[in-house]
Amino acid sequence: MSRMADPIPRTMQAMVYRGVNDLRLETVPVPRIGAGELLVRVAVCGVCPTDIKKIHYGTVPPPRIFGHETAGTIAQVGARVKGFRVGERVALHHHVPCLKCHACRHRTFAQCAQYKRTGITAGFEPSGGGYAEYVRVMSFVLPGVVKIPARNTFVEGAMQEPVNTVLKAVKRLALLPGDTVLVAGQGPIGLIFTRLLALRGIRVIASDLLTPRVNLARKWGAKWALRADKKGFLDEVRRLAGKQGLDGAIIAVPSDEAMLQAQILLNGGGKLLLFAHTRRGNRTGIDLSTVCVDEKDLIGSYSSDFTLQQEVARLVFSRKLDVRQLITHEFPLEKGAEAVDLAAHPQPTSLKVMVWVKNGGI
Length: 362
Hints:
Layout: E1 3-4, E2 11-19, E3 22-29, E4 38-46, H1 49-57, E5 69-77, E6 89-91, H2 102-105, H3 113-116, E7 120-121, E8 134-137, E9 146-147, H4 154-158, H5 160-173, E10 180-184, H6 188-199, E11 203-208, H7 211-219, E12 224-227, H8 233-241, E13 246-251, H9 256-265, E14 266-274, H10 289-292, E15 297-300, H11 309-317, E16 327-332, H12 336-344, E17 352-356
Parallel strand pairs: 10-11, 10-13, 11-12, 13-14, 14-15, 16-17
Antiparallel strand pairs: 1-5, 2-3, 4-5, 4-8, 4-17, 5-6, 6-9, 7-8
């Protein structure tokens, strides 16, 4: 027998993906959980570029209910689940690695077969499900559930997953205090990079095409912030980096031009990290001798690192990294398609876009 508080309705509202750029508010069944699972009433879910690409390019077949930056309240606890109670406020991780396979032993968790399975669903093929009133949390991702402290908000819970992906990438760079790093792109992810690097004593040169974001980057810890389309941009970065040059560059926008510029600006032994080039099939030209002879590392980082959850929770819940400042727009579930459209076409003053659900509350 499962444990629940108020009666669970049979149906709910959800934003269903029906095809390329086709999102519809529909009535669907509330997921039923097994003995080893949780049912969570969604409060808020962030709009992530990963889901936007699936919606805009149709890279996965419909129907699906997307949304994976999810926080809410436990509504039902399976009979065999321990450590969780109805009414607890939680943040969810839809991917959790096995920690035992070849990929996990090499800490490439995103390549783990279990990790590639999506463990949270609101119906249809499991796809995160956060754009719905309730989600089913499967047993294998229960270790990824994070309890939200009483002083913190659902939004801070929902931001656990994106912050984790950035912290993972920062650690992959293995930079030293005093190093100089270019962060190309100062959207929500780029700003998190800027802040986390600054907290580690890294000198950040931030760049973006939007002036409000350039200005905001300074407040988030950038030592210097520039318009990427400024005349003489490359020369200015060289001047700021000094004789040692750039020790690292993070490409937080899917721009080949930014990547090629950064590769030129790196010093011998510098590291170039791609974070936003997630669409398969893209090709570009790079001087491979810079990797071989100049020993400039080309690194990729994708998704989260389960072992960093506690560190991420401390950063976010202590507000050392105050993610609340990133939230510029909130939409109710019935206007979820508008939320996705805004996130896909950011305005000068827009950053992180959230979808909230009436029965969850923020």
